[in-house]
Each structure stands twice: as C-alpha cells, then as structure tokens.
Design goal:
By secondary structure, the chain is α/β, with parallel strands linked by helices. Helices cover 35% and strands 24% of the residues. It folds into two domains: 6-72 and 99-171 and 281-358, 3-Layer(bba) Sandwich (FAD/NAD(P)-binding domain); 173-279, D-Amino Acid Oxidase, Chain A, domain 2, CATH 3.30.9.30.
Amino acid sequence: MQEPRIVIIGAGLGGLVLARILQIHSIPSTVYELDVAPDARKQGGSLDMHEESGQFALRTAGLYEEFRRRTHTQGEAIRVLDKNGTVFINYAPENGEGGRPEIDRSALRNLLIASLDPGTIVWGHKVTAVRPLGEGRHELTFAAGNKTMVDMLVGADGTWSKVRPLVSDAKPKYSGISYLELHLSDVEERHPDSAALVGPGVFFALADNKALIAHGGRHIHLGASLRVPQDWTIKSGVDWSDAAAVRDILLKEFADWSVELKDLIRNCDGTIIPRLIYALPVGHCWAHSSGVTLLGDAAHVMSPYAGEGANLAMLDATELAAAIVEHGDHIETALTQYEAAMFRRSMAAAEKSAKGLEMCFAADAPKELVHFFAALH
C-alpha cells in the first residue's frame, strides 16, 4: 500500500519538529513555506525550552545534544523592575543554568532545518487556497498558481492560518496589547550600561499598563508594549519605517520612566517593527475533520506572556508524530487521538498565558509578577 502523502504548511518550529520526527521513522513528508529562504526574515528573540515540552521534543527528534551546544550561559536569569528602575527580582540559577535553557529562535530553527533531508522543505510556496476533495484529501493552491494534492494536511502556519478555516470558524482577536520590536546590537561594547541593566536573561520593567520586556546577552531583543486600542499604530500618524520618529513617540509614551530604561529605547537599532498581540479563545477546539489538523499557533495562538507558544507547538508536533507512527495508515485514528490530548493541554496553557498578560499589565504591576516569580524561586 502506498504511504499517505503528508503535507505540512509552515516551516516554523512546530512544522519542522513534526517533519524531523517523521523522517526518523522513515515516514516522508513535505513542508511548504512561504519564505523564500531560511533567513528571509527575523525569527524573534530568545526562547526558554521547557523540560516537559520543548526539551522533550528535541530529545525525541534526536537533537538534544546539538541544542545544548547552542544554549546561552546564564540565559535563565530573571530581572523584574518597576518604571523607576527599582529591582524587585534579580534571580540567577546556580552554576548559571536551571531547568529551562535559553536558545536563539533562529539558532533553533536552523538546527531543525539542517536535520531534514534535502527537498523536505519547499521554500517560496505561499498557500492561497485549500479545497477539500472528499475522503480526507485536499487540494492546495499556491501563489504562483500551481496546485498539489494532499492525503493528510497539517496546518502549522501560525496565527492567520490558511488551513484553520477547514476545521474552525474561530478567528484570533486583538488582546489589547501592541508592542514595538526593538534590538540593541553588541551591547557590551556599544551600550554597556544597558547590558548591565538587562542582564544575560529575561528582563521585565512594568508599570501603568506598559512594559519593557527583553532578552539579554550579546544582543538585546526588546519589546516595548502598551495597552492601547487596536488602531493605535494607524491613528498615531507615525511612519513606522522612520526609526527616529518611532523612538520619539515611544519616549513620549514612557516619558516618566527612568533615564536608564528610556535609554533602551533611545539606543535601539534602526529597525523597529510594530506588532499586535492576537489570541484565539481559551479552550479553542473543533469537531474532527477528515484528513486535516492543526498545531501550534494555527491551533491555539495565545499571548506570549507565559512563554508557552514555541514549547507548545513543539510538543504538539511530537505527539502528532507519535500518533502517526503508532497508527500507521489509520490517519483518522491518529488525528483524533492527537487532537483530544492537544485540546486539553492547549486550554491549560492559554489560561496561563492570559493570566500572564494580566500580571504584566495590571494596575499595580509588577506586584503580581514579583509574587509569581518569588513563589517559583
């Protein structure tokens, strides 16, 4: 019997983990990715890999040792401040490492890409339409007009998934938080005061429904976040490609914050990217549809304020791969088994993420976050 043709839409962490584990078990798959190359766009900052999810996925994928060679020393340090620069939490694990090692998202993605057989990922293929053909098969149409047939379809294509409408009418909603993605490069040489302020790990400065949240190290990846209306980036009248103008509006928004904190904005590099935080409803699920499923943000996009997104996507992929391996040609059994467990897991994570958002943007922030981290450490 011919093996079912498994197609994964999206070469993010979840889609790549799924393809890698299937490859280990000699199950072919194809990953279609809209980016034309691995380095076509920035992949974000640092990720902490949780033992029960991200690390478990990497062990299952046979890449754990390679992953550990790429992690950051002292990347698990935590600093929590208020807008005046008062430090409430300054935690560093013993010997510089705890149970959640940090790695650059780009480094992790490149590791997964390199682990796949040539031709597994088809770059520069943007899916524009998906059509059910019956009996679990689907037809994909790409931006160039070419089409392909699929026996089993996995949507790993993020927040605005093209595959999700096959199984669910739910659409992500604006969370109330917008943020500007900033970077400070080579900070130990160029901005040593900012390097010392942020430290080597994760950094929170919170107050007044605003936040500066960063990952430190050689480079600082910073999000300047605000609780604002959804159209704030439009009505502000700013040319978001004009870095100087963007810095000016942010410095006005954070005008009563300490000089040291404002220097993180003042000294950032020239590329500043506005982003809005969206989330699907907590507990998002669907009735199973033949031959198709979702993983990662396509299934359960949530706010990033609990650090669950990447880890959850990788665990989704690991459990989906395990179900496919276990049930062989019985695709529907594999998919329904995977979805039942994923729905329960993602609901708990979404609740945690929603709570994390409220802790970061509470009226008395950083009080609740300080209590949370104090209880952990």
